[in-house]
Amino acid sequence: MAGCELRREDVRAIAWSAVHFIVASLFVLLMVSLVYADMRLFQNVKENGFVETAQITLLGISSILFWYISGVSLPNRVAIRCLSLFLVCMALREMDAWFDETFFHGSWKIAVIPVAIGCVIYGIRNLGDLVSGVADFVRSKGYILLFVGMLCVLVFSRLVGSKTIWVFIFDDEILSRAVKNAVEESMELFGYILIFFSGIRYAVEVNTRAPCRIGRSAGSSGGSSAL
Q1: C-beta atoms surrounding 135 within 10 Å
Q2: What is the dihedral of CA 212, 216, 217, 220, to 10 degrees?
Q3: Residue 183 Cα distances to 59, 94, 162, 163, angstroms
Q4: Which of 3, 37, 79, 202 has the fewest CB atoms within 10 Å, measured from its CB?
Q5: Is 75 a residue whose pLDDT tops 50?
Q6: To 10 degrees, what angle do helices 163-170 and 173-226 make?
Q7: What is the residue-wise DSSP string for 27-52?
Q8: From CA 45, how far away is CA 38, in angstroms rounded?
Q9: Cα 125 from chain centre
């Protein structure tokens, strides 16, 4: 009957999984309530409303988080820094309404271009480290969340948020536009939540294995100096 015994490690793992699910669900509930707030106050998901602010905030925090990770995970520094800068570009793109009102239409591109060019140059100059860092990241559990989040933001939200779909369903220009905006921005927000969770998950992974890597690096350098 030994196979019927409960192992404490298994119970702990399941319990922690349940706790993570509950916390993540509460966080998603909080974020989705912002959609309701926008619709309640503005009758639409506006570009300068609660949802848009939450999207920019999540992208900013995620970018900072990945930049922090790049300082801990030295072998992956180039790849993770490029990812952080890419998220900065996405955040600036989400701020297009603010740039349009403050400066002129399309001025967000002036802010994005230097960051994007700097990211590309940095990646090309460290191409070997970039490729190895990306390869390491795609093997991590954090990458799965990032993959789904990016798919949600860049592909699914655009397809589901197609104006043609909602005009066909409602046959009303004003109503279809409001529903389109709510659906598209909600899906984007969920994607950014997944990207944020990806940063947290990868930070945990990196912090867990960082001492081992540092130890190996120190051992290697010590051996070289001995020679």
Answers
A1: 11
A2: 170
A3: 19, 16, 10, 11
A4: 3
A5: yes
A6: 150
A7: HHHHHHHHHHHHHHHHSS--TTSHHH
A8: 5
A9: 25
pLDDT tens per residue, range 85-142: 999 999 999 999 999 998 989 999 999 999 999 999 999 999 999 999 999 999 999 9
Let me know how long the chain is. Answer: 227
What's CA 171's distance to the chain center, in Å? 35
What is the pLDDT, as a whole number, of residue 226? 33
Nearest to 99 by CA among 148, 48, 26: 48
d(CA 133, CA 211): 18
Dmax (CA) of the chain: 78
Band (48; pLDDT cuts 50, 70, 90): confident
| Rounded mean pLDDT, 77-87 | 96
Rounded CA gap, 197 and 52, in Å? Answer: 18
pLDDT > 90 in the chain, percent: 63
CA atoms within 13 A on the CB side of 186: 20
Q: How many CB atoms lie within 10 A of CB 133?
A: 24
Secondary structure class of 83 (helix, strand, coil): helix
SS3 category, 67 = helix
54 by DSSP, 3-state: which? helix
Instruction: Find the mean pLDDT for residues 144-166.
Output: 93
Question: For residues 94 and 185, what is the distance between their CA atoms, to the nearest angstrom?
Answer: 11
Average pLDDT, the chain: 87
